[in-house]
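anyone else get weird line breaks when pasting these?? whatever heres mine. first is seq + tokens for prot A
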Amino acid sequence: MGGQLLAPEEAQPDDVVLAWEGADLLAVRLPQLSESLDHILAALERGHGRPLAELDRKAKQSVVRTLEARGAFAVRHGVETVATALGVSRFTVYNYLNYADEQRAEARRGAQRPASDG
């Protein structure tokens, strides 16, 4: 995620101080969300073993679902950043998001159907 480790005395109000048995051991400064998105994209690229832009459509849709679950699209310019990384347009990213919504809705409808006794 790109966090930074600090001595506890260097901690600022937004940092997370970690303690063990009552003693402050270290502080963690979390990056801004936009920086985290870059780290998440880099991790996904490493996981796929190649640039995200080289993935097929189905894999790109999976990446978008993963990023949505991690809150990537709550970040300002998140859609644009993801579109650039995937080598697609913003419109395509929105289509992938809509497709994921449709899949979830279909799964909910399927789960609500009573089982047949046949």
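and prot B, same format (seq, then tokens)
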Amino acid sequence: MNGSNSGTTDSASGTSRRSDATRGAILTAARERFAADGYERATIRAIAKDANIDPSMVMRYYGNKEGLFAAAVAIDLRMPDVGGAVSRRQDVGRVLVTHFLDTWEDNEVLTALLRVGVTNQAGAERMQGIFRDQLLPIARHVCPDPEQVPARAALVASQLLGLALTRYVLRIPSAVGLAREEVVAWVGPTVQRYLTAGSP
């Protein structure tokens, strides 16, 4: 009895690992294909070929291209905790810019999403949702006027997305050539002003 149960458990565990590996291969291929071709031109068949699996497997796990795209660009920006000490709050601009540089440079998914977002409505809506849901709590915490939170968060998003577009997608040489410390020194105070300065 015990041996039989153990064998069943091992089999289920092996199946789960294979399933996870398949999902991972699909998502990796999808991110690369969406980044290279955009949402409209990327196809389930091409993504399946890149992942070296049958297209039916993609459909089995994600249903359709829209479902696959949503899974491929599900992103937790892992925003830093800006609560607590006043000195931390006063330094939120530098902290956020540093965090985003780390995130963009280590996460090809964000770059892929930005490329899709500038040409496709689904990508744009996905990017809007990510920034709305994850930037707004920070803005609420540090903004002096609660009624201005959405506008201030939008201004921060415009600054960060503009930086990402020029540095990682368009790769404008002068933007790419800036050292991280220079980017933080230039952009940090602007983000800080958007979030914490008095109304103009």
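btw re prot B: The radius of gyration is 21 Å. Residues 43 and 135 are 32 Å apart (CA to CA).
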